Automatic annotation (TrEMBL), chains A, B:
SMART domains in the record: Iso_dh
GO terms for MF: 3-isopropylmalate dehydrogenase activity; magnesium ion binding; NAD binding
UniProt organism field: Actinomadura soli
Pfam families linked: Iso_dh
Keyword Aminoacyl-tRNA synthetase part of the UniProt annotation: no
Cofactors (names): Mg(2+); Mn(2+)
Protein name: 3-isopropylmalate dehydrogenase
EC assignment: 1.1.1.85
């Protein structure tokens, strides 16, 4: 079989990052041959250690190298020894913004057999996709401090939203919704308070909706949406929302779909002007690093999203199915250490 | 018994507002005589109807009258016939800002017998108080639109945070925490992204903490906090957070504590330079208005908070106990229409 060669950048990062990435790559290696894929990997030592050593988070030279890759797999970044926000903004958000990851794609799906904190809720009740805007909103870093440290200090943060940015993510969300059986799209915002940004989202939603008459749309304030996540998760199919609301509701989504150990995500540049980056939603969890306790499932599901992105849908489906089967087995037979989960899933997809 | 006279403004509002307020007042009337309280009530017809009639939401003249009152009881405002945000900003937020309600106090408490969507969670697992900032953050209305309606439109929203505003709400939260058995205070923010505002909150928390050595403090990002709300609600005692995060997590809190029909709140001006305003967290729910389906419990619990605020702690405890007993009875014997719930609770507190 002729192999298609894919340039893959790997950023294992901090804490449990390297452990879960190792399992993700194990599964990728197992599924690749029979899918006609060959990955040309380059690993980047970005994260806390490099910052301590050099003060660098994501140097321009590395960013330039990343641009030459086709896709990126990221583990997790962050460490208590580094001031909060340094790696998050200097590395993670810098990559999202520089590589124009305007869609932050986060499925919220409860696999059969997986425990959820919600009473009486089963796999068929939780199956949604959150399309989170990834390059604007309150994440721009715009803002500042006046009279710092005095009783008259003022600290501001600005949410910047553009027609350009909102339209492209809303359009993407309609595409996702149109391709799903229920064809339902919910805008989540807070337009009764954040009136300027909210009205822009509402107006764009209405405009783009004309091109997708088959998709039913509705709107929820973000506060109400969090209630429905726990009281009626079934009401959601596809959600489109801003960067900060998306951050919040996808963590809540992870919680109801069996925990952060299972939540995958893609930082997607649908225009393909730069590589997209796939990463588990969880952080670096330094408290459990190196103990074989981390669940690599979120990373493995992120690998499935990566495969989808490069057009290897069949391989993606096989990885998802293997994860689903493995989760059912773990529900029945008990949890396993990190590497054993990777082994089991790799075995299922190989050959 | 000599009566203390209290000037009470009542704003029934829209939808189910008038129905639930009627029950709140029924309970207030029932508990007052034996508590040595007499309320001098003035009702204000603010809301959708008045806006349709006159275009007014909260006219200056009414605001001036409200300032002369000691406390305010509000039902709910908002109607689909009024553009989203008009009454919310023109009436509710205007009152909160003008009357300097810098503490938005929202207990999240699961009463015994009440159903929660969380599996295996009982009343003792959910008992926290959210101290939400009420007069700044992303709620200032600061922001604007450039090139509206063009492909180059930019919409901004600014979160404004001051040392003055943050310190007073953080201090209040420490007071609340110090008075509770667990004496634990969690700051909820997003300081790895909203660095200017987040750092201000963190710094103020650390400073004020020195005055309350008995209170244990910690910090959670808002996204992680929503996960813990559903996976481990017990970890929370008192939370202090900004206006928008507080809005979101208290709706989620209401959901886990038995639903929005039970969630009470106080818009409090602790300096007492203007009247405080008590209101159920829920909205006007026009879809069920006038059918006797609304649960007045949130309003009745808001009346208990109002009683606490005016120094009638005994009366407040009696109302809370009556609500608790009534909820247990409803759990056992089934739900009742709006007025019957008010009747039953009024009966329990009277005499
Ligand atoms: C680490 C942090 C900056 C990041 C975010 O807020 O986007 C994370 O919470 C996420 O959801 O990927
Ligand atoms: C109606 C709305 C403006 C309000 C808010 O966002 O504060 C409501 O959601 C609340 O929580 O009281």
């Amino acid at each position: 079989m002729v192999s298609r060669s894919v340039r893959l950048a790997v950023i294992p990062g901090d804490g449990i990052g390297p452990e879960v990435v190792a399992e993700g790559l194990k599964v990728l290696d197992a599924v690749s041959p029979s899918s006609g894929l060959a990955f040309e990997r380059t690993s980047y030592d970005l994260g806390a250690a490099r910052w301590h050593r050099t003060g660098e988070t994501l140097p321009d030279s590395v960013l330039d190298e990343l641009r030459e890759q086709e896709v990126i797999l990221l583990g997790a970044v962050g460490d208590p020894s580094v001031p909060s926000g340094t790696l998050e903004r200097g590395l993670l958000l810098r990559a999202r913004f520089a590589l124009d990851h305007y869609v932050n794609l986060r499925p919220v799906k409860l696999f059969p057999g997986v425990a959820t904190p919600l009473a009486g809720v089963t796999a068929e009740d939780v199956d949604m996709v959150v399309v989170r805007e990834g390059t604007e909103g309150p994440y721009t870093g715009v803002g500042g401090v006046l009279r710092k440290g005095t009783p008259h200090e003022v600290a501001t943060q600005e949410s910047v939203n553009t027609a350009y940015g909102v339209e492209r993510v809303v359009r993407y969300a309609f595409e996702v919704a149109a391709a799903r059986p229920r064809q339902r799209l919910t805008l989540v915002h807070k337009d009764n308070v954040l009136t300027f940004a909210g009205e822009l989202y509402q107006r764009v939603l209405k405009q783009v909706a004309r091109e997708y008459p088959q998709v039913t749309t509705d709107y929820l304030h973000v506060d109400a949406a969090t209630m429905f996540f726990v009281s009626q998760p079934r009401r959601f199919d596809v959600i489109v929302t801003d960067n900060l609301f998306g951050d919040i509701i996808t963590d809540l989504g992870a919680a109801i779909a069996g925990g952060i150990g299972l939540a995958a995500s893609g930082n997607v540049n649908p225009a393909r002007t730069a590589p997209s980056m796939f990463e588990p939603v969880h952080g670096s969890a330094p408290d459990i690093a190196g103990q074989g306790k981390a669940d690599p499932t979120a990373t493995i599901l992120s690998v499935a999203m990566l495969l989808d992105h490069i057009g290897a849908g069949d391989a993606a489906r096989r990885v998802e199915q293997a994860v689903s089967d493995d989760l059912a087995e773990r529900a029945a037979l008990g949890e396993r250490p990190t590497a054993q989960i990777g082994d089991a899933i790799a075995k299922r997809v190989s050959g």
